[in-house]
Amino acid sequence: MNDAEQFQTDQTIDPQQESILRDALNTFMVQFDRDLEQRYKQHSHDRTLDLINRSIYLMLGLYLLVVVPVILIVKTPEMAAWRNYGVYPIAVALVGLWCCTRLDWLRPHAISVMYLALWLSLSGTILGVIRFNSSFPGQVSSFESIYLLIIAFSILRLPPRQTLITAIIAAVFALAISVITALNIHLLLIMLSFSIPLMICTVNGYILDISARRNFANNLLLAHESAQLNRWRAQAEKDANRQQQLNLFMGQIAGNLTPSQLLERVLGYLVQHVGAKIGAAYMLEGNQLIRKASWALSGEAQAREVVPADEGLLGAALNQRLLIQQHQVPKHYLDLETGQGKSPPGAVLLWPLIQGDHPLGIIEIANFEGFDQEQQTLISELHHPLSFSLQSAQHRQHLLDPVSYTHLRAHETDSYL
């Protein structure tokens, strides 16, 4: 699936989801159902990953701009130890983010890497706060923790619930390591450097998330309405084109035409507007189908002037009284002439002509690629005016030929019986 198809799929909603979106916009938290919630979460992650993908080098540059001067200017044992908490974990996190945006095999796991990078960075900075207490490295670690929370909640705008859980897990991990290594834990310092900033960032993250949810819902509804309008426009254009085709067809069959003239014009129309390459039109006379018109028939098909009405493809289609497309046809049946010789047709369309309960005849056309649903629908709409015109042409011809007219009336009587 390409990007355009994926985008259209992501924008698709059903009527029930449309109602859910409209109801959600009337609530404060803008809550979705399970499917829409999953789509929103994926939308948020994709937005974040796209931002990371476009700004990863900027983040690496800012990281180096802050870290390198501190390392070069402040050369104390504590600052050397601080690197293990406030430099290397963030460096590993940034390298992980770079890899998941550049390596194809890692991209499917980009969301996991993103949360793992946040966990690793926060664990290091919180440990740095506990390890160095209120000293300069501890203050730097405190600021780093706050910056990480601001980046996660407000700049990258990760889903606040998952981000909050990741931050809490990082804090619990850091506290556990501190207990295991017998570090002094100053709760007030933890509260000022992490807990309170976490609460503030979480509230801000939820406010931003509510706004993002409203935008997501509005965009889905706008895309849905736009798609609906496009479908209606396409249908209106299709209906107008179909009406134009019907008017053109009515003009083709207008006039006091004989059945043969009428069917010749019909075949010409089908060749020009339906994509037929070859065709023949038969009228039912007694128990036989007599060919009255043809278009580009090959030698074998040209010799088939009279066909029993109850045999072969024509007889079967006439008996079923349905428009039928056949892709498997007998050998040399309506072969198409090409520059390399004769080729079998890709499909043969059999069009029985029925007026009321009375079968009048049948038209068969063929081409290389087959006839699509729109072409078949057009032919179905042409059926009634053609059958009426053909029956009228038959009666006009037989009124001029009393003997033939007697045979026609006898055949109609037999058909009704």
Word description of this protein:
By secondary structure, this protein is an alpha+beta fold. 68% of the residues lie in helices and 11% in strands. A six-stranded antiparallel beta sheet has the order 3-2-1-8-7-4, with helices on both faces. It is rod-shaped. It starts with a helix and ends with a helix.
- In helices, the fraction of residues equals 55-70%
Count the DSSP helices: 14
Strand order of the largest sheet: 3-2-1-8-7-4
User: N-to-C terminal Cα separation, in Å?
Assistant: 57 Å
Computed over alpha carbons, the radius of gyration is: 39 Å
Query: Main beta sheet: strand number and arrangement?
Result: 6 strands, antiparallel
Strand content: 5-15%
Pairing-aware structural class of the strands and helices?
Answer: alpha+beta
Principal-axes shape call: rod-shaped
Order of helices and strands: HHHHHHHHHHEEHEHEEEEEHH
User: Stretches where pLDDT falls below 50 for ≥5 residues?
Assistant: 1-9
Quick overview of this protein structure:
68% of the residues lie in helices and 11% in strands. The chain has 417 residues and is of the alpha+beta class. Helix 3 (34-73) packs across helix 5 (88-102).
Give me the secondary-structure topology.
Layout: H1 3-10, H2 15-24, H3 34-73, H4 77-86, H5 88-102, H6 110-132, H7 136-155, H8 160-180, H9 187-253, H10 259-273, E1 278-285, E2 288-295, H11 299-302, E3 306-308, H12 312-320, E4 324-326, E5 336-338, E6 341-343, E7 347-355, E8 358-367, H13 373-400, H14 402-416
Helix pairs in contact: 2-9, 3-5, 4-6, 4-7, 5-6, 6-7, 6-8, 7-9, 8-9, 9-10, 9-13, 10-13, 13-14
